[in-house]
């Protein structure tokens, strides 16, 4: 295949999330989740188009359907042998998440073995190696409050003497920053609608499962940035901001039939 027939260059975006058995810095980390999305490198934004198409078409055909999910359960025993922390209240919380996800109540030993990964989990060094591979190249890594996920993941790597950086720290982006930008807008309708759209796409029943929370973070990062960019372009050329927001809210509701 010659160069003219090769695939166009892309940019990779990623979301990241962890699930822990404690809020302590030294918590047991029992699941790592990543979501990735590849988009054409040439990013063209005009007043009404992204990548040469309307915003809602871009979101529906690229963002909402083009994400790949990865997850790994991390073996708990090696972590507890290193005195990493397990909080009974957090354990009960995740047990409730498991019951809602599986539609039934589990006894405690069954819950520990099936939901928290014992018997189908990987040693922390193997899990970290997988994570490093998944996060080898994203230009933007979206995390909901990096101050929680990042130090606990890096401490896990330090505890098990994992060599090298897991990802490029310069790629880190905070989902809370995007949300705050929307909340500062004088038009609450766009934020409220985007919350419903992302919950609809991601599935709120998947909350607190690392790969789906990673997708949630990625959706907010990519979709949120695209919408804010279009609002900036539109408002620079129009004084009727309420109509711009109203049209965008209407389009978002149509595309997902909300």
What is the strand and helix layout of this fold?
Elements: E1 10-20, E2 29-40, E3 49-50, E4 53-54, H1 55-63, E5 68-73, H2 77-80, H3 88-102, H4 108-114, H5 124-134, E6 140-143, H6 146-159, E7 172-174, H7 175-183, H8 188-202, H9 210-237, H10 241-256
Parallel strand pairs: 1-6, 6-7
Antiparallel strand pairs: 1-2, 2-5, 3-4
Record keyword descriptors for this entry.
two-stranded antiparallel sheet; alpha/beta; Nucleotidyltransferase, domain 5; 258 residues; five-stranded mixed β-sheet
- CATH superfamily, by name, is Ribonuclease H-like superfamily/Ribonuclease H
Strand content is 15-25%
Order of helices and strands: EEEEHEHHHHEHEHHHH
Kindly identify the CATH topology.
Answer: Nucleotidyltransferase, domain 5
Query: How big is the Rg?
Result: 20 Å
Give the rounded overall mean pLDDT.
81
Main β-sheet: number of strands, strand sense, barrel status? 5 strands, mixed
Instruction: State the CATH class.
Output: Alpha Beta
User: Per the principal axes of the C-alpha atoms, what is the gross shape?
Assistant: elongated
Helix content: 40-55%
Q: How would you describe this protein?
A:
- The protein has 258 residues and is of the alpha/beta class.
- It has one domain: Nucleotidyltransferase, domain 5 (2-Layer Sandwich).
- The chain is built from ten helices and seven strands.
- The protein has helices at residues 55-63, 77-80, 88-102, 108-114, 124-134, 146-159, 175-183, 188-202, 210-237, 241-256; strands spanning 10-20, 29-40, 49-50, 53-54, 68-73, 140-143, 172-174.
- The strands form two sheets. Strands 5-2-1-6-7 form a five-stranded mixed beta sheet.
- Strand 1 (10-20) and strand 2 (29-40) form a beta hairpin.
- Helix 8 runs parallel beside helix 10 (241-256).
- It is elongated, with a radius of gyration of 20 Å.
- 35% of the residues are buried.
């Amino acid at each position: 295949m010659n160069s003219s027939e090769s695939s166009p260059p892309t940019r990779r975006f990623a979301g990241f999330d962890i699930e822990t058995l404690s809020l302590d810095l030294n918590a047991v980390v029992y699941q790592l989740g990543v979501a990735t999305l590849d988009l054409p490198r040439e990013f063209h934004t005009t007043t009404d188009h992204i990548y040469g198409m309307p915003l809602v078409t871009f979101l529906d055909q690229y963002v909402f359907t083009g994400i790949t999910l990865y997850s790994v359960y991390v073996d708990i025993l090696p972590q507890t042998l290193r005195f990493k922390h397990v909080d009974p209240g957090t354990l009960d919380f995740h047990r409730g998440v498991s019951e809602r996800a599986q539609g039934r109540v589990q006894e405690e030993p069954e819950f520990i073995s099936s939901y928290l990964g014992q018997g189908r989990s990987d040693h922390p060094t193997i899990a970290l190696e997988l994570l490093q591979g998944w996060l080898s190249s994203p230009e933007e890594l979206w995390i909901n409050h990096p101050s929680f996920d990042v130090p606990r993941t890096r401490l896990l790597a330090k505890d098990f003497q994992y060599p090298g950086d897991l990802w490029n720290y310069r790629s880190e982006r905070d989902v809370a920053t995007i949300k705050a930008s929307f909340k500062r807008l004088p038009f609450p309708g766009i934020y409220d609608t985007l919350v419903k759209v992302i919950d609809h796409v991601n599935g709120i029943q998947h909350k607190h499962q690392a790969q789906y929370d990673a997708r949630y973070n990625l959706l907010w990062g990519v979709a949120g940035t695209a919408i804010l960019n279009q609002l900036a372009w539109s408002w620079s050329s129009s004084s009727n901001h309420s109509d711009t927001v109203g049209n965008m809210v209407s389009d978002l509701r149509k595309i997902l039939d909300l």
